[in-house]
Amino acid sequence: MIKNFAKYLQNIPNLPEIILELDSFRKSKNRNFKQLAMIIKNDKNLHLDILKIMDFQIFDFFNKPKNIQNFISITSLEFVCALATSLCFCRSIKTNLFSYAVTFDDFLYSNTLSMLIVEMWLKNSDKKLKDELLIPAFLQDLAKPLISKAISEHKLTEQFLSEINNSNMSKAEEKFIGFNAQRISSNILKNWGLSHNIIFPILFSKDLKNCPNEFRLKALILDIVTLVSNLREPLLESNIKKAINEIELFGLDSNGFITTISNINDNIKSNS
């Protein structure tokens, strides 16, 4: 196990001002898509990331132009605002995903997929819960670049990947770092002063038995979503089946979830 991982958390930068601008927009009662589009376009890197994400095959624009207005219309204002906010958080941490054998685009895809599953699965059953889980769904893997950096600098990448293949990603992280990505991500978000409503569901998503009751449903949903949007194997059929079993075990809406995954897979096929 890497014993000096704490040093990788010492130089986390302060959040960019655009985070405050997006948060102010989110809380506004008179918000509209034009305001959000302007905020996004005023930040070149954020705009480029959003444009890249709009090209992901999980989205169906129904032959409409791929712009922010239409992106909002096929998802929601809350989705795009949460996506923009989450991207700004992620961009505050230097990207290194070598030890997971994936690219930054894979990272964006996996996290965006997590958000999209939350958006589509919960939008008709519990909009408030859906809106509260969009940002945590994207940010629960926030720490993976730091974990990857530590693993690669200690020349443990080959062993780490072998452990992932033999067990799972979360257990491999715990074996090599001492904590899983969700635990470390929640610690970073705590240092940035984020709400418990974001931090606790992430913190306990891999530790449901110790999760406070008021956050257990959120933590459970995040665990299910991250299983399906697995960074290395998103939408793997065996993981989808595991997720459905978990959903039915806890009495959640399996029909809505199955429909969501089916619709996303249809989008991928139609865009291929």
UniProtKB/TrEMBL annotation:
Gene3D superfamilies referenced in this protein's UniProt entry, alphabetically: Hypothetical protein af1432
Protein name per Swiss-Prot or TrEMBL: HDOD domain-containing protein
InterPro entries: HDOD (IPR013976), RNase_Y/CdgJ (IPR052340)
SUPFAM superfamilies attached to this UniProt entry: HD-domain/PDEase-like (SSF109604)
Transmembrane segment boundaries: none
Domain HDOD residue range list: 12-208
